[in-house]
Design a protein that fits this description.
The protein is about 15% helix and about 50% strand. With about 110 residues, it is α+β, with helices and mostly antiparallel strands.
């Protein structure tokens, strides 16, 4: 979905919250839309009519298109962010058979 109207973005983020991709969606500010990932990491979107910025601590990425995706090999369902037709990131629910490797696993 191209980011043209704030209401459309909020509707998609509402769907993502209903699909448990994100939680704690808060849109009380004009440009800042706050949320938490399914893993509990706080983030926010800075909204402008044709370009948005996804923010996490120490990280920012532009996007002009976002959709709910079920085609990423690591995610059951995810928000897929794109800029100028190039996918820039995913936020989502990892498949349960995938696990993080720790230093103890490597030994």
């Amino acid at each position: 979905m191209q980011i043209d109207k704030r209401e459309d973005l909020l509707s998609l983020l509402d769907d993502a919250e209903n699909n448990q991709i994100i939680s704690n969606l808060c849109d009380k500010r004009l440009r800042k839309i706050s949320f938490k990932t399914c893993e509990g990491l706080p983030g926010h979107i800075e909204w402008y009519c044709n370009l948005c910025t996804l923010h996490f601590a120490g990280f920012s990425s532009w996007f002009d298109d976002v959709k709910i995706s079920r085609t990423h090999p690591c995610y059951e369902k995810a928000l897929q962010f794109s800029y100028n037709g190039i996918v820039t990131g995913f936020i989502g629910i990892k498949y349960s058979h995938l696990k993080e490797v720790t230093a103890d696993d490597a030994n």
